[in-house]
Design a protein that fits this description.
The complex is a heterodimer of chains A (about 120) and B (about 110).
Chain A (H helix, E strand, L loop, with lengths): L2 E5 L2 E3 L5 E8 L7 E7 L5 E7 L8 E3 L7 E6 L4 E6 L8 E11 L2 E7 L3 E5 L2
Parallel strand pairs in A: 2-11
Antiparallel strand pairs in A: 1-3, 3-8, 4-5, 4-9, 5-6, 7-8, 9-10, 9-11
Chain B lengths: L3 E4 L2 E4 L5 E7 L7 E6 L6 E5 L3 E2 L7 E6 L2 E6 L9 E6 L5 E2 L3 E5 L1
Parallel strand pairs in B: 2-11
Antiparallel strand pairs in B: 1-3, 3-8, 4-5, 4-9, 5-6, 7-8, 9-10, 9-11
The chains are: A mainly beta (about 120), B mainly beta (about 110).
Chain lengths: ~120, ~110
């Protein structure tokens, strides 16, 4: 079964850091790009970060709201993607989802989603 | 940034109804549009990609159409499991979602 499992969420004070993990199983992790999304309580979906597969350079992208504070990375040998979140703000409070990305002609859509991990930024 | 606008925001319907949700993009996105279903407390689930391609395992009562800036998601005969929130998403330039359409029981 194709599966993504997020971990690492929790309660953190503003200005502190947290690292989320996304562990994949059931497919060849290194063949796919990975993206992180988030959903604040009662709100819609927001893209956070993206990392291409090594085949396409392993390059990264970030939403303006997190650029310079968050870092995405991947360890294909362990089938894990990470989201390092620094200088956290209250507005980063959300459920964070890891996704596998399907690719068509260089465009990526999200074909598998994890169940999410909750991040709460509060003093 | 490309803005996505869905209508309606809420839709009340009965089992067996034909349901249509509209999504408009602020600029042309060709056919690089996906539709997702989300139930309370759960992750989104991919239904449609490339505007009209049905994801494997998704019931055939779901269909998508459109290109450019106007898109629709149609559920041909609403089933009890279909009451949920639906999001469109463009993926030609990063990724942005519509605000969602909640399909409620009438």
């Amino acid at each position: 079964e194709v599966q993504l499992v997020e971990s690492g969420g929790g309660l953190v004070q503003p200005g502190r850091s947290l690292r989320l993990s996304c562990t994949a199983s059931g497919f060849t992790f290194g063949d796919n790009a990975v993206s992180w999304f988030r959903q604040a309580p009662g709100k819609g979906l927001e893209w956070v970060s993206f990392i291409r597969s090594k085949e396409y350079g392993g390059t990264t992208e970030y939403a303006a709201s997190v650029k310079g504070r968050f870092t995405i990375s991947r360890d294909d040998s362990r089938s894990i993607a990470y989201l390092q979140m620094n200088s956290l703000k209250s507005e980063d409070t959300a459920v964070y989802y890891c996704t596998r990305c399907g690719r068509q002609f260089g465009y990526y859509y999200m074909d598998v989603w994890g169940k999410g991990t909750t991040v709460t930024v509060s003093s | 940034d490309i803005q996505m606008t869905q209508s309606p925001s809420t839709l009340s319907a009965s089992v067996g109804d034909r349901v249509t949700i509209t999504c408009r993009a602020s600029q042309s996105i060709s056919s690089w549009l996906a539709w997702y279903q989300q139930k309370p407390g759960k992750a989104p689930k991919l239904l449609i990609y490339t505007a009209s391609s049905l994801e494997s395992g998704v019931p055939s009562r779901f269909s998508g159409s459109g290109s450019g800036t106007e898109f629709t998601l149609t559920i041909s005969s609403l089933q009890p499991d279909d009451f949920a929130t639906y999001y469109c998403q463009q993926y030609i330039s990063y990724w942005t979602f519509g605000q969602g359409t909640k399909v409620e029981i009438k």
